[in-house]
Predict the 3D structure of the following.
Amino acid sequence: MKRLIALAVIIGSAIIVSSWPSYGQRDPNARCLLECHGKPDFKREVAPGQFKSLYVDYEQFKASVHKEKLCVDCHTDVTVIPHQRRPEQIHCLQCHYQGNVVGAPVSERPEKYKESVHGKAFERGDPNAPDCKSCHTVHAVRPPTDPLSPVYRANIPKTCASCHVEIYTEYLEGVHGQALRNNVLESAVCSDCHREHDLFPPDDPRSSLHPQNVANTCARCHTDVKIMERRGVPVKQVEAFKKSFHGIAIEFGILRSANCVSCHEYHKILSSRDPRSPIHPLNLAQTCGQCHPNASSNVARGRFHIIPSDPDAGIVFWVYEFYRWLTIVMTAGFIFYIVLDLYGRWRHARRSSHG
Amino acid sequence: MADSGNEERLVQELQRELEHELARPLDDAELQRIKELVRAQLEAELRAKQRRAAQEKEQEEYFVRFSMNFCLQHLVLAIGVILLTITGLPIKFHDSAWAEFIFRNIWSLEVNRVIHRVGASLLMLVSVWHIGWLMTREGRRELRELLPRVKDFWDFIANVKFMLGLSSERPRFGRYSYSEKFEYWALVWGTAVMVLSGLMLWFHRIALAYLPKYIFDVALQAHSGEALLAILALITWHMYHAHLNPEVFPMNMTIFTGKISKKRLMEEHPLEYEQIMRERAEAEQP
């Protein structure tokens, strides 16, 4: 009988333990959770009738990158449990700074945030400014490779949309948004162009959106032969742009010159076959007309983004070839003639000096 | 004549010296021989002196090859082309380190554009000026001389033969040799291409209104291609004929002063020299 009771206790406690949310008595975080933060209705009255939930979904936490951490590893000012005072707001840079020997995975990225538009706004006290947790969540921080992470590629537009909702709708109409909807993960998401942590306004020379950097930003994908071939997109556009008057002007500091987005738009980039697109042949006169007021429908008669040495350039290629060969033949002829003339003079001089 | 007195004195001196050495008077035949020798010697000396004087005179004598107007046209053209070259090349080779150095350290792209258009204006100015000048009597005469003729082709063949040693004579050129004619017409063609395409690029707003984009692209490519061809022709053909050639090294000043020495005129343009001489002779005869 004693044995039976002992067995029942063991089984019972096993059942109790296993039915416990997911933390056991041995989990050092259990003290925080059992009494307070593990209860879904645990909340604090911030203003009369207004409550802030203080519940922590521990299942989510155990699935996060911080699953090995203790609550007090981050909430360092909590020394006795239950804590007497409201803990200070924690900051990720407590651990995620460069040179942390404990080994939090650190790069310069978190620090770059401070320089970014978001960081600056946060510093100014803008209540809408996002900080780390706005994108990475609080307790459920998952790695960017995890499809459940808000910073997973496919989720990034939605994450940004929590503030930038109008841009999100524009983006979804564009080719990049459409492709992402069709599960093309290599399509561009917000952070591919805007970067994540070092996100600067376009007039900042460090910005990926600065006129002098736009072509290189697009080039990160649009010069990738593999990606572009898979999507059936021409790959020489950026190179051709850099050789064009617009590209040269931008490169050497004439910033009002056109860059990629001047014609292609940015969030709502559309194929040239789409009649709504600014680069649809019927819309080109208006698009070019933004800078060149007299532009007529004639601007659509010809190829765009041509590289003269490339047969795809059509008639320009033939002009290029004509001048290439003419120059080679003529210059070689000139040099040959000069050598011949000098030889003739030398011969003549030698003969007359010999008598 | 002073010369005959001189001759007699020399003969007498020689006679005295020989008689003293031989210790006998000279006979008539010997005296006659001494006289002949002295005369021949003196005549040779006189001829040499005359030749030297003539040579000096030849080197000093200059002919007017180009009018002041013509020289000024060349000067403006040269300044324009130099400005166009130093501002055009960095655009064509914008990828190169030296172009980047120029645009980042010496002059900006904006300044570059202004200088290029100043050069273009000079080139167009001189083109209009030249066309107007070709209407004048002087211009019409020069144009006639500059027209290519069948003789130029045979001159070229003959000159190549001479250089190779297959013939001993250089062909005899008129006012303009085939190489000068070639350069002139290459310049005319090049200027036409550069000015036409350049105007389209300069006034692209107008061009974009009336011309298809591909014409504009062709103009840009032709501008770039013709420019390089012209620059290479300048630093080979022109540099050789006007500077590096042993005949004129280090620099042929004729195009700036308008003057050419008789010696060079006779060597380089013998037919023109003969023509001038004929005309002078005709003018002297009443």
